[in-house]
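seq:
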Amino acid sequence: MADGGVSTLIVLIASLLISGIAGIVLIDAWGGVADANQSAVNARAADIETDVSFAGDPTMVPLDDSGGAGSYKITVMVQNSGSRVLDHTNLALFVNGNPFGDGSDQTLADGSALPGDHRWGPGDIIVFEITETANEFNGFVDNTQITLTIVAESIVIAGHSGTDSETYEVRLNDPTP
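struct:
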């Protein structure tokens, strides 16, 4: 009977060792899952907190055609309506599906030039002048309706940046007779 007790004790100790090792492996695997989940949560939060919107009257978007064909300019006001700082150098504007801008032609809402290190914070409005590059606006006249799409990206925080895009139907207004 003494032999049965020793072998039972050996099996018990071996089982405890194996259980301990399996527990360590599971805890380590769970830690990896938790890290991946936290990264996904941070990325989703970045997208939720990033928001951009058209600022101004959508029926009165200024069209400047005073330079003649090939030099039309559309002026658009864009507001950071989210809670994250946006990267004004990484903004895409699309007019009827044609891409324009890299954030290089922007001014503050008061008309002053936007410094390169400017922080486009929540609530800030920036005025963008979209100039045609290959007669894309040729034929645009007063009261022309266009589709304007804005795509913005926030600055990187905790390894993640958020993005947002908005599409608007707007009407051009040519103030010159």
